[in-house]
Design a protein that fits this description.
The protein has helices at residues 48-61, 74-88, 102-114, 130-137, 155-165, 185-194, 249-258, 266-277, and strands at residues 97-100, 120-125, 141-146, 169-173, 198-202, 225-230, 243-246. It is an alpha/beta fold. It has a single domain, classed as Aspartate Aminotransferase, domain 2 (3-Layer(aba) Sandwich), CATH 3.40.640.10. Helix 1 runs antiparallel to helix 8 (266-277).
Length: 281
């Protein structure tokens, strides 16, 4: 037993809100073993050039540690916009991008803005396990809709489920985690047409897919579609904790209503900008 203070009480003794009683925290095992595949981390360490660039960028940024960071991370968002324009072929502006501490914080902010008490989120399972967990944490009712036996998405069924349940938020993961299926544009358009609220297209693994990014649909569905992404996978930057979304500028305005002040540290912004400079490594 540890020597921690206050061991006389347990979680059961605390006044948790009812929705959290009996829940278990998310926790993928973190073990020192020869092969680690459970969280889809890149097994290869960063290049020496990237390590050196991150170290130098953080060293320079450290001179400003006595000041709060750029609250809106404008330079980082501009770098992300340039990367996305080149990677997807769609013109993305700084005003279309929002960044946070990993895509999980992005998803949480989206549900804080568009979900919450008396609202619902629908997703097609099996898919990313954090969607229902973050829904629960934001007091958003989670509605699971099933995929086919081969884990592909039955779009007729998906549209029917959306029309029947009328969720405030719909999650579409493309490529799907853990099955790898990508949704094509025609099917995604059908989902967007059926959805009464926000459709979050989770593109955490987009760089590993030949399918076109859903970013190309923002101009046609500005009040509906949000594309979430991460630097954890393709950039081998899981430890850097940088996620981002792409949407109409009005959606970024909504994020400003729910984000914590100065949520991205000086160090995070500097390291992420360095990683973006090595996107082709």
């Amino acid at each position: 037993m540890s020597d921690a203070l206050g061991q006389a009480i347990s979680l059961d003794d605390l006044p948790l809100r009812e929705a959290l009683i009996g829940k278990s925290p998310y926790g993928a095992p973190q073990l020192t073993v020869p092969v680690q595949l459970n969280t889809n981390e890149n097994p290869h360490p960063p290049t020496q050039a990237l390590i050196d660039d991150v170290a130098e960028s953080v060293r320079i940024a450290a001179a400003q540690l006595h000041r709060y960071p750029d609250r809106d991370a404008d330079d980082l968002r501009a770098d992300l916009a340039r990367y996305l324009t080149g990677q997807t072929g769609f013109a993305v502006d700084t005003a279309n991008v929002w960044a946070a501490n990993g895509s999980n914080e992005i998803l949480q902010q989206l549900l804080q803005a568009f979900g919450g008490p008396d609202r619902t989120a629908l997703g097609f399972v099996p898919s990313y396990s954090m969607h229902p967990i973050i829904s629960s944490g934001t007091q958003t009712e989670w509605i699971p809709a099933q995929r086919r036996a081969d884990f592909s998405l039955d779009v007729d069924y998906a549209v029917q489920a959306i029309e029947e349940r009328k969720p405030d938020v719909v999650f579409v993961t493309s490529p799907n985690n853990p099955t790898g299926h990508s949704i094509d544009e025609a099917d995604l358009r059908r989902i967007l047409d059926a959805a009464p609220g926000i459709v979050v297209v989770d593109e955490a693994y987009a760089e590993f897919s030949s399918a076109a990014s859903a970013i190309g649909l923002i101009e046609s569905y500005p009040s509906k579609i949000v594309v979430s992404r991460t630097m954890s996978k393709a950039f081998a930057f899981a430890g850097g904790r940088l996620g981002y979304l792409v949407a109409a500028p009005a959606v970024i305005d909504a994020m400003l209503l729910v984000r914590l002040p100065y949520h991205l540290s000086v160090v995070t912004q500097a390291a992420a900008r360095a990683a973006l400079r090595h996107a082709d490594d």
